[in-house]
Amino acid sequence: MNKILALYSNEMLKISKRLSVWIVSILMLVIAVLCPIAFSRTESSFSDEHYDESYSKEAFTKRRDSLSQQLGDTSSFVQHSTVQYSFNGKSVELFSTYLDADEETVELYSSLTIYNTLLSSYDFDKYPIFKTWLSMHALLNYDKAHDELCVLNSVPFNERDEEWFKAFNTTSQLLEYASSALFNHNYQAYYESEKINIENYRDFYLPMIEKIISIDPQGELSVEETGKLEQLFNKIYTYQDELEYGLLSEGERPRIVTSAKREELQDTIAILNYKFEHLQTYQAENDLAHSVNSITIMLGRYCLIIILILIAGSSIAQEMATGSIKSLIIAPVRRWKIFLAKLLSIITWFIAGSVLLVGISTLVTLAIFGSHALPNYLFVSGGTIQSIPYFLYMILHFFVDSLPLFVYLMIAFMISCLTKNTGVAVGVSIGMVLSVNLPSLIISMFGEKNWIDLLPSSNMTITKRVFPFADLMYSDDLMISESFEITSHTLQFSLIYVAILIFILFMIAYDAFTKKDIQ
User: Fold this and answer.
1) Count of CA atoms in the C-beta half-sphere (13 A) of 385
2) pLDDT digits (tens, 9 = 90+) for 297-309
3) I need a labelling partner for 428 at 20 to 30 A (CA). Which of 37, 74, 400, 436 fits?
């Protein structure tokens, strides 16, 4: 063991003396620091929701005054009287209004009445209209019900029949609910009005409103926040439908839900419900922060690839070409120990470089956007929601996503053992890394074939299967795509497959090195 440690230390020292390694390493670190700073300048485009000034108290006052001048004395066409109606066989006495005017005047009168009521009764300071979702939708309902009531009141007294009376009662009830929702900020009243309006409407809407009321009974959430909750609930509803009917709606044609996919859907619904109840909705800031971090890591990864391929490809081939390896071969140490020390040094640089890249990039992103901008990864374990801190998740994600890179490192190391030509080992390995997704894309053109699942390229990209709920951390707009995955095999199969592949590459490299005749 002491000899292996000594050889390992010697290898690490030799690698650290290589100028090319340090140049690319420094470039990687510069990318990790400067890219988040540069990309963060786009943050200003995600500012707080703009308040529509046309719904301010001042704007309503101006429109009210303008309409007052336009309509003049409304008593010239507004009449009030107590009228007898026959409803359900009974005589009903009702204080009624008749608007003796054309359709345009009736519409203007309705707007004037609404503005007067808003200006005298609405609290613009506490709940600015279009700042909270409830205020906005309650106003829309109030405006609609009031307009309909004015239209009904434009029907002459002597033409108002039982059907008119039914419509008048329904509209009056809607106006009462809308008024309570708007002026008292009563979410339950809004819900009651929607129960009347819900006919021929989305059947998931009422359950969604009920659920929002349970977490926001005062209706204080903004238009943007409630809109995102609506999107979240819509996804939950869609997944529940897929579970119920056993068909996936993704892609060009429906697919049958397998037992594994059913479990994933159930876990997805559980996570979305958790996010809904804890108001962990999609935020532009989350998307921006994660996208900045992901792009930075993706750019830095190319530098890390070059570093590792240079180390692995030249580890043995260059020393054989220059003859410097003879000093190790003639030493009283077995070749397998030399081989193992070189392999361990490559793995060390792979791990250290990965942690350094992800760590610095994530820390700089956190410093710029704050910890709240990078959410934890949620998953289901034992029927309960668990989480992995974002920092740890990104490191684990990087290692899993770099599995093909590690395989190509082993290929570079193997070629280095088989030949004295460093250029061949480095060139072939870099070519394979840069075209990592090309084989899968070409293979996918053949359609669903069983033999495709047995190819290396179909089993090395396992990120989506290890982290199936990564997409739930962000919205769909700014997601950084994972590697292309087409295999239908389980994660366990792919892991065993890759382990066997790495073992074969290891044995070929080991056999070539231990049996090579070094002159």
Assistant:
1) 16
2) 888 888 888 888 8
3) 400
What is d(CA 101, CA 70) in angstroms, rounded to the nearest whole number? 14
Q: Mention every residue, 6+ apart, whose C-beta is less than 8 A from residue 99.
A: 77, 78, 79, 105, 106, 109, 150, 153, 154
Where in 322-381 does DSSP place strands (E)? 377-381
**Upper half-sphere CA count for residue 47 (Cβ side, 13 Å):** 5
Residue range 60-113, pLDDT digits in tens: 999 999 999 999 988 889 988 887 766 667 777 778 899 999 999 999 999 999
Q: How far is CA 193 from the centre of its chain?
A: 33
Cβ neighbours around 207 below 10 Å, total:
12
d(CA 454, CA 449): 10
Q: H/E element holding 80?
A: strand 78-87
Residues 6+ apart with CB under 8 A from 461: 401, 403, 404, 436, 437, 440, 482, 483, 484, 485
Q: How far is CA 459 from CA 221, 412, 415, in A?
A: 45, 19, 22
Element (H, E) at 463: helix 463-466
Query: Is the confidence at residue 26, as pLDDT, over 70?
Result: yes
